[in-house]
Every structure is written in structure tokens, then in C-alpha cells.
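Bug report (template v2)

What were you trying to do?
Predict the complex of my protein with fe (ii) ion.

What happened?
Run completed; filing so the output is reviewed.

Input:
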Amino acid sequence: MSRPRSNEHRLVAHVDRLGEQHPPIELASVDLTLVDPAATNDRFGHVLDYMARVELEVDRNVLELTTMLPDPPEVDRHFYADVWQPQEVRHGQILDRLQVELGRPPAETDLTTVSARLRLLGALGRIPAVQDVSRMLYYLTGQATERSAVLAYGLLHDGLHELGEHAVAETVVAPIRAQEPGHHAFYVMSARGLAGQLAAWQLWLVRRLRALSFGPVGVNDADQLADFGEVMTTLGIDRDLDRFATMVARVETDLLGAAGRGLAVPPYVLRAFREAVELARERAGR
Ligand SMILES: [Fe+2]
Ligand SMILES: [Fe+2]
């Protein structure tokens, strides 16, 4: 079993509270009435498609997680099995229903592929010091993902109101968005608790592996990176890309020492977001 973090009791209380206060969103509470399905599809259809896919792929994320961290602390298992996965899958189901209302096919998901890199980390994780490196990668990925989700859902919520689609803005996007900050807080508390226990060489390795493997949420190949770039462009994030990257990576910047080296954001984060926007532009030009 992995070593408990110094703030383990606070984490357990946080996860218990999330479970009580945020059950999966009731399908009956969702109002999919649309004023103009065609216009909404034109503007935000691909954004909803991207989000639905990412939310539904949490089933694969759990497989990845159990491969990479076969022996997690009990509170981690409690979080992903009892709180996170049921909430996220419901987010995906609701967004998928909305897609169908817009006249789009349901999201195409990959629920089973676990990369060779994660299987390797899982095998190396039999060494406890290496498992702690993998855990840190997991918490940092989680925090960046959830922060991206909070920001993107906020922009989508405002955009749907602007289109006059108040029902879906308030009964679909707002309740989904409200569940993401609790996930974010879990990963931030976990990362901070673990960071204090890592040796300098472990932090160095985390930094190297993040630089090699960082990708925006939901990106597994070049096509999906371009899809993410399109989402950024539609939501207007491309016009304020540095600020978005800085917000997404704030905890990572702090914990991995980039802030101490005078950087507002690790260079690999900025590079990935810029590349996403460039790829989307290239693809649109073809
Ligand atoms: Fe979600
Ligand atoms: Fe989430």
C-alpha cells in the first residue's frame, strides 16, 4: 500500500462530503428544450461532442488508473469509484443526449485502450518510490483536466445563454460545471500532500515525464489535438491562450518548481495548447 499523505484525514472528509452533496445529476432534472437546434449545433455541436467523449471515457481512465497504480491509498479508490466515475459518466450521458437533440450522432469513445507507457509505469510501480512518481503524474493530470473543464464549461454556459439556449445552459451545463471544482480540489490536495514527501530525484523525474507526456484533456492523437484546438477557438480561449495555460497549470507550476525559476507556466503546457490551435487552423484551411 502507498504511504498515506500528511493531509489524508482532510482528503477523506472532502471525498465523503462530495459523495453526500453531489450525487450523480438526475436525468429527470435536465431540460433539453432547444430554441434553435440547428444554430446551436453549428456553433457548439463539436464542443459538446468533445466534452461528451471526454466525460464518457472516464471508464477508460479508471482502467488506466488501476493499471498505472495497482495499489492506491484507500481514499483514492473511494474518490474515483464512489464519486468521480459515477458523476462523470452521468455528465457524458447527459451531453450525449443533448448531442442527439442537436441532430448529431452520439460521441465515439475509446473505453478500453491503455497505452504502453501507462502499462510500463504500472510495472515499475512495484517499486514504491516509482509508484509515488506515477501518483504525482496522476494527480497533476487530474488537476489540469478538472481546471480545464471548469473553465470550458463556464465559457460554454455563457455562450449558450448568448444564443438564447437558457434551458440547456441552466439545466445541463451549470449543474455539470458545479461538480467539477470538487474533483479539482481532490487532485490539488492530493498533489500538495504528496509533493512534500517526494525526494528531489522523484520531483525531477515527475518534471521530465510531464514534459514528455503532457497533453490537453482528452487528447490521445494529432486529430484529437486539432479537435481540442477547435474547441479552444470556438470558446475564444485561443485569444487568451497564455492566461488559460497559466490557470490550468498553476498548481503544477508551483509544485514542480517552475515558479521558482521565474516561469508563469511550464513551457510544455504552453507548447501543447499553441500546437492545438495551430493544428485546428491548418485543418480548417485544408
Ligand atoms: Fe465532468
Ligand atoms: Fe470532473
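What did the reviewer find?
Residues 55, 88, 91, 149, 176, 180 surround fe (ii) ion (ligand 1) (CB under 6 Å). The first helix runs from residue 8 to 21.
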